[in-house]
Amino acid sequence: MASLRIGLAPLKRPDSVLHGVEKIDAVLAECATAQVAIVCFPEAYLPGLRGGLFELPPVDQPTMVDALRRLRAACRAHGVAAIVGLEWLSDLGLENRAVVISAAGRVLGHQTKNQITPGGESRNYVPDGKRRVFRTAGTVFGICICHEGWRYPETVRWAAARGARIVFQPQVTGSDTRGRSLTAWGESFYEKAMQCRAEENSVYFVSVNQAMRYQNSATSLIDPKGNLLAHVPYGREDLLIADLDLSKATRFYAKRYNPDWYPD
Length: 264
Description:
Order of helices and strands: EHEHEEEEEHHEEHEEEEEH
Number of domains: 1
Structural class: alpha/beta
Helix content: 10-25%
CATH topology: Nitrilase/N-carbamoyl-D-aminoacid amidohydrolase
Number of strands: 14
């Protein structure tokens, strides 16, 4: 597939898990009308990112199981694939996952946040120690979750070296209660890091933040040369739709990576 239409959905935090599912379903319906192949939502959107500045309900795995069932049905009904951030209680503990659901409603797998932000997050979530690439809508893509993409560039290189032409970054960076108000794209470290992750691997980098009053970065789409293609203004709940020319995602620098030159 030479072209892929994607959606970036920076949503505001929902009032409940069910409310979040309903918001996602509405976005999927909009994506179906626009013929979007795959849409990405923020990190841990259901029920929210634990360990930060948000007030969240206690961990409730049965509610998450029901939410995933509803999300699968919504993707199937609308014929749109989705990357949805949610928490999941596994045998290891509570994981911060980005779940990939196909347009047919099948769970293709998930990427767990392994490089977990020190502090509140690290007291709530556990890593599973695995990285994955995904195949759907005619392309290969990877996922890094928030902190991983800012501080650990190898999480993006890993996916690009294994065929990913796009790396999605569900994230939550900012707050509704306090912080600095950004005025121009490119002011923050986080947005500069997006450009680095794209250009150093020659892939598209797609970062989706939660819509908040004080965002540390915008929801942004970066091309394989590190150029900003589009972004959503800070604080705005929106749906950004873009067509990607996958032939431009050559993975040139990622393919030159040689792990043998970096012995343990």
